[in-house]
Amino acid sequence: MTTESLTVRDGIVVSFNYTLRLADGELLDSSEQDGPLQYLHGYNQIIPGLENAMAGMKVGDAKDVVVAPEDAYGERVPNAKQLVPHDAFGDDADLELGMQLQLQDTETGSIFTAFVSEIRPEGVVLDFNHPLAGETLYFHVDIADLREATPEEIAHGHVHGEGHQH
Predict the structure, then answer these.
(1) Which of 53, 56, 89, 149 is the most buried (most CB within 10 A)?
(2) Could you list the residue range(s) of the whole structural domain that residue 94 is in?
(3) How far apart are CA 164 and CA 166, in angstroms?
(4) What's the structural domain count of the chain?
(5) What's residue 84's pLDDT?
(6) With bands split at pLDDT 50, 70 and 90, how would you rate the model's confidence at 97?
(7) Cβ–Cβ < 8 Å for 115, 122
(8) How confident is the model at residue 88 (pLDDT cuts 50, 70, 90)?
(9) First-residue to last-residue Cα distance in the chain
């Protein structure tokens, strides 16, 4: 199958350029600096609303995509915050507002992502909402390249770049 006849579908490695804005037009992210983003379509590597909207596109196709919160990072949960004492982070912790942390529940072993939302004298407020939770996202995407995924990429569920190792 030639690149020209490929379309975005499950099992295809998609390389795409994008800009991401909020409703007020604020630019949040872009592939302009680093070049196209790659992902393996159908393997939940990008937000569902964007992945679904790109299905069927071909190399050179471009479109504007509006992704509602429920198809992105979900609605904001107001009580998904917790005050954690400073000593829980260790003496060498250099915490900053907005910093992403990976936390592990000592009882279940589950991993959680939290973001530092406040640093107070009595502790650090962690927000378990994604920073973009509750936001409608506005993407402009264009497909730069498509290729069939290798059997190894399919087995591992992600794109393998040059020198990829596990």
Answers:
(1) 149
(2) 81-127
(3) 7
(4) 2
(5) 93
(6) very high
(7) no
(8) confident
(9) 29
